[in-house]
Amino acid sequence: MTVANLPQLAPGPPRPRPRRLVLLVDDSAAWRRVLGGLLKMGGYEVIEAASGAEALDLCRRLSPDLVLTDWAMTDMSGLEFCTAFRLLPRSNYGYVLLQTTDTAAQAISAGLEAGVDDFLTKPVIAQDLLARLSACERILRIQEELQDTNAHLRKALLQLSDAQAVMDRDLCEARKLQQGLVRDRSGQFGPFQISLLLRPAGHIGGDLVGFFPIGADRLGLFALDVSGHGVTAALLTAQLSVHLSASADTNIAQRGAQGPSGGAGPAGLAHFFNAMMLEEMSTDTYFTMIYGELDRLTGQVRMVQAGHPHPSVQRADGTITHLGRGGMPIGLFEHPLFDEIEVTLHPGDRLLITSDGITEAATPDGQQLGAEGLDAVMRTNAMLHGHAFLESMTWSVSEFCRGERQDDMSALMVEFHATGRVIRLDGVP
């Protein structure tokens, strides 16, 4: 065996690479000395094996970076060695260079299938050996870079996972706090029963519903929906809840807030919130709202609609009417137009106020529930009352959109029980 053009492998400048461990596998000691000398001149650390079995043992113990093996050995072929080599556990990739005199396509195909990375044709030409080593260096360097990158990615993923776990815990606690903003999910005031529904699409959301007493004979009712989702919406919801809490010290409606136009009541509250959003908050967030005041003696409800979905009144005979013309959202315009609504409830009637997370719930192909769909849900569940009605409505909406709900769902329902009596405005019962 000879090696052509030996001077071509004279040592050059230091290579910017780690020192590689090369295993020479050949039953010819003379040939191992020749190739080993060339590899050492190139800066490689070389170990030798005279048989396939010895080579496999060295591979188990030392994990060489490169294995340069002969096609034909006394105890096994180069292909058999390579097949066994690929089954060994390793922490890094091992490159296999197979020396052969058979360059037929069938032999090359068999070698690649066995796990050979490259072939070195005998008799060995120095330039070919140098080229094969250069290719080996590129592959191993890429492999090491990938391993380093994967290690960094795994570390980053673990850190992200830990951070996500912390965020999830915080959001779960925030959800509990937000749910606590709605302290009473229902209330009974004479013949009037009020029921609330609040279902964020995620951990926290921007919907809020509630009620509070105003004096002895009136109740304040509110439903609002802050634009967007997540923390920003939840923070604004929390701030608004302070102004709509049952505490007379902070409740704007209970204190008879005066709007810019000087009007009190539901419209005045909407104007107050609009001025607060524009003057005190540097944000692009806005919200829709319905705020109403129910007179428990007359059954009359005075409401303001500020961009919120239309309230629905279901009469005792089953007929459904949608109220309002829409109005403008709060926090967008300096001089907004809000819609003022008046309706009188009679025994057996119910008033339902929902967020757009219900009316705009959509199937996977984009078909929305809409007002007609909500009417159908109300008729289907007409015999139910209170939370049973709201839960059944929620189930119907989820079934309609195949469980792929993207928005918060909230609702406020006022029911005037048929056994109750109302006093007309002229005082006659």
TrEMBL record:
Pfam family, one: Response_reg
Assigned keywords, A-Z: Hydrolase, Phosphoprotein
Signal peptide from the UniProt entry: none
Entry superkingdom: Bacteria
GO biological-process terms attached to the record: phosphorelay signal transduction system
Modified residues (4-aspartylphosphate): 70
Residues of the Response regulatory domain: 21-137
Keyword Phosphoprotein: yes
GO molecular function: phosphatase activity
InterPro entries: Bact_Sigma-Reg (IPR052016), CheY-like_superfamily (IPR011006), PPM-type-like_dom_sf (IPR036457), PPM-type_phosphatase-like_dom (IPR001932), Sig_transdc_resp-reg_receiver (IPR001789)
Keyword RNA-binding: no
PANTHER family named among the record's database cross-references: STAGE II SPORULATION PROTEIN E, STAGE II SPORULATION PROTEIN E-RELATED
Protein's name in the database: Fused response regulator/phosphatase
UniProt source species: Paracoccus liaowanqingii
